[in-house]
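> example.struct
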């Protein structure tokens, strides 16, 4: 992998940022910005001027508008948080990088691999950092699940089952690969974290159940070979009503000395075979479900 250099920011005072995208997740990011001493909200940009204004009004002095270049220049912003819908990640992030601003983006990095590679190239060309937020590895119970995986000896198979039936409305109803692009990225990344392994190959079948209310394929099964030979199997549906899993899905890890399971919310469970050095120390406290896509 080539090393990429990017400009770093000085640590003189909080970093003024513009949040682009004042939808559901954009408003969550406004809360994170408000809670951090390291950043200050300089402005909010959205295609919907009223939504941008309402979001900017949550912070004193923050500007609002529909044009990123204008808001960035007038507010003195030095970084952008891109929380737009996936189809807008490419144009918004390209524009921010061209303005000389580093970008913290929401997942998916872009709507396709080609677009994501284009963004990586643009970031390198601009000498600015483009990074995509990955929140799941900060989930306390996922970290506990990972810790328990370390005690199972050699690992065989990690599985995730994800079945929910949300009626979002909006971009997810019309995008081409709603489950894989907008949701499955979370468990795929979490699996890398749990196994401390990278995918070597993948076979995936994506399809749309006949009753699906999504235009794109809302169900998929993927089998990854990971480094070290472990298999990761994901199966999920976004139109799977009844006995729904948590938003993080249900997890099972099968290893040489036993099995660990996690319901995606509460403490993980471990069942080791009698010969193993089982260490069932108290589980980490529950930090609640993450009802987010
Ligand atoms: N990490 C997570 O847990 C998590 C959770 C939910 C959503 N997300 C991601 O956050 C992003 C936004 O999701 P959401 O649920 O807030 O969607 P949303 O539809 O509620 O909001 C998207 C906003 O972006 C605005 N927008 C679209 N194109 C734009 C453009 N070119 N310029 C400026 N504004 C534009 C829309 O007007 C809308 O207000 C998506 O990429 C989604 O996958 C991540």
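> example.seq
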């Amino acid at each position: 992998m080539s090393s990429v250099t990017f400009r770093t920011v000085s640590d003189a005072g909080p970093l003024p940022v513009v949040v682009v995208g004042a939808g559901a997740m954009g408003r969550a990011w406004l809360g994170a910005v408000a809670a951090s001493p390291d950043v200050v909200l300089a402005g909010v940009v959205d295609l919907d001027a009223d939504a941008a204004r309402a979001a900017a009004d949550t912070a004193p002095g923050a500007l609002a508008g529909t044009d990123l270049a204008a808001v960035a220049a007038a507010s003195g912003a030095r970084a952008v948080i891109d929380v737009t819908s996936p189809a807008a990640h490419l144009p918004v992030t390209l524009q921010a990088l061209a303005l000389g601003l580093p970008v913290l983006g929401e997942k998916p990095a872009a709507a396709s691999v080609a677009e994501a590679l284009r963004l990586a190239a643009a970031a390198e060309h601009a000498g600015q950092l483009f990074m995509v937020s990955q929140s799941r590895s900060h989930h306390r119970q996922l970290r506990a699940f990972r810790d328990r995986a370390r005690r199972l000896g050699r690992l065989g198979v990690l599985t995730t089952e994800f079945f929910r039936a949300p009626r979002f409305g909006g971009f997810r109803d019309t995008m081409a690969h709603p489950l894989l692009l907008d949701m499955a990225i979370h468990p795929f990344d979490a699996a890398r974290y749990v196994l401390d392994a990278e995918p070597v190959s993948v076979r995936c079948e994506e399809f749309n159940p006949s009753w699906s209310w999504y235009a794109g394929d809302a169900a998929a099964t993927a089998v990854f070979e990971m480094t070290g030979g472990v298999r990761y199997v994901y199966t999920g549906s976004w139109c799977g009503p009844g006995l729904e899993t948590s938003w993080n899905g249900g997890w099972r890890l099968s290893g040489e000395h036993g099995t660990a399971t996690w319901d995606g919310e509460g403490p993980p469970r471990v069942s080791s075979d009698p010969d193993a050095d089982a260490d069932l120390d108290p589980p980490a406290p529950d930090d609640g479900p993450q009802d987010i896509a």
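> remarks
The first helix runs from residue 24 to 35.
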